[in-house]
Amino acid sequence: xxxxxxxxxxxxxxTEAPSGVPAARxxxxxxxxxxxxRILGVISLIGLAFLVVYAFVVSxxxxxxxxxxxxxxxxxxxxxxxxxxxLSNAAFSVWALWKRSTFADLAAHACxxxxxxxxxxxxICGALWGRMTWGAFxxxxxxxxxxALLFLMYVGYLAxxxxxxxxxxRTVRSGILGxxxxxxxxxxxxxxxxxxxxxxxxxALGTLDPSISGxxxxxxxxxxxxxxxxxxxxxxxxxxxxxLQEQLDTHGVDDAIELRRAEAAQPS
Amino acid sequence: MTAFTAAITTDTWWLIxxxxxxxxxxxxxxxxxxxxxxxxxSEQVPPEARRWM
Lengths: 268, 53
Known about the structure:
The structure holds two protein chains of two kinds.
Chain A lengths: L6 H9 L19 H24 L10 H31 L2 H32 L8 H20 L5 H16 L1 H11 L19 H52 L3
Helix pairs in contact in A: 1-8, 2-8, 3-4, 3-6, 3-8, 4-5, 4-8, 5-6, 5-7
Chain B lengths: L2 H7 L3 H30 L11
C-alpha cells in the first residue's frame, strides 16, 4: 500500500532531517512579502485611512441619497475591484489554457479568490444600502440577481479548484469556468439599462455627466483607487502563497524520495 | 455638527457603520489569513524557490 503524504508532512520531514543526511530544506524564516508589496501595503493603509476620513467627515450627505451615500463609498469600490479581479482571472485563464503556464494558472486563482471576496462584500453592502433606501435587504431585481449569480459562479470556480485532480485537469476545468463566468460581467454591468431596475443607474463611472461632484466625487474616486491598489496587494500575496504550495507539492515529493534514498543507503 | 455625528444620530446609522466594519473587517481577516499561511509555507520552501525575495 502506498503512503499518502500531504505537503505539510513532506515539509515537516524535510526540515527535520536526521543527522548525517543533508537537509533538503533549511528551516529558514520567510514570508510572501517583498519591497513592492510592502510599498503597496503602506499605500493601501494610508489610502484607507484617508478614505474613512473623507467618507465620514469631509463628504456631506447627498441631496437624493442622504446619508446612504457613505455606504456607496465602499459599495462601488468593492464592485469595481471585483470586476477588475474577475476580468483579470479570465485573461490569466486564457493565458494558462493557451500557454499551459503555471504562473498564469496560479495568478488566475489568486484573482478569482480576491474578486469573489470583493463581490461578496459588494452584495453585503448593497443589501445594507437597500435596507436603508428601499426598506428591504433583498429584492429580486435584475442587478442584484445577476450579481448574486455571478458570485455563485465564482464560488463554484473556487470549489472546482479544490477538487482532487491533476494540475493540467485543474487548469483546464477552472480556466474554462473562469472564462464562461466572465461573460456574465457585461450582463451584470448593463442589467440596469437592459431591464427595468430598482437599482440606480451609473453615478460617476462610464458617464460624461456624473450626478455627483465635489467632495463626494473625490471620495468615490479615492475609494476606487484605494480598493484597486488593495486588491492588487492581496492578489500578489495570494499568488505567492499558491506558488509556495506549488513548489512544495512538486519539489517536496522529489526531495522526500531523495531523502528516503539517502536514509536507505546509510549502513544500519 | 459634522457629517459623522449627523450620520450616527439617524436611525439607520448602524447600517452605514455595519457596511464599513464588515468590509474592512473581512478584508483584514483575509489578508492576515493569507499572510500567516504564506509565512508558514515559506519556512518549508528554500529561499531560491521564493523568487520574489
